């Protein structure tokens, strides 16, 4: 298979498989600014399928630091992915001599395992995943791995597939957390972790914050953030993440309206629960507090952050202000968020 094709569609969701193996700065002490720039250049050219330029950048690293372990690893990885096993083994042996316990040696071994994977078996695992048969797909991937750790180049699509089931989601999150800890510079891994964290209410805010950190200039992260914001039941502390999103998308009425309607929703929902249980006085007070909270937070959304983005930001501010003035007249009703993600395959729980 062509390892340069990193994008794999799983169940209608774009899942990114990192063909880089380990990120450049995951382990080495590459703090020299010149070295970091050169390693970034090598990563960039490799992603663009220009390994000649990537290796040229790595050779410049060796001029600065002849024993740079990260550069040695990258030379071994790129050579292996290009099918030059003799060259790959030369660099692998050098890495082993420089850093005998380096975890990236396992990644290089994984590239060898990938070459032994049956294309038909891999296609079947992906077919099962695309059909939504998560349990069978995970089993198919595990058969490919032969009881070992996931092959590095397939790890992300494996974990993303696993995250498609509530039963296996915790294991997927754990695997991605471990991988993200080892690969802090690997954007694909960080994005995958952020996305799966949004699949359940207990970690949705953490995932949203991670997506917000990646969203500027990253369309996939930005789209995933939008969906997460629609899944969430807005709380007072969520104002910042909503506001930052709306600064980039001032005309996104769906997210704005979801936030506006959700403010104070927790208190109001408690009121409806009390009402259903016959506690009329308690219900009236809780709904009143919810309405007051909603009105106050509507007024706070967007003012400083949106002021500098005229004229359409100005129009949005005016709409928010007008809505705030009419908050007391708005008809109060229970809020339901399960339908916020209509048309997608992810969670029905809000939070």
Automatic annotation (TrEMBL):
SUPFAM superfamilies linked: TPR-like
UniProt keyword annotations, A-Z: Signal
Region (Disordered): 287-351
Keyword hit for Transmembrane helix: no
Low complexity composition-biased segments: 320-329
Taxonomic classification: Bacteria, Pseudomonadati, Pseudomonadota, Gammaproteobacteria, Enterobacterales
Protein name as catalogued: Cellulose synthase operon protein C
GO BP, sorted A to Z: UDP-alpha-D-glucose metabolic process
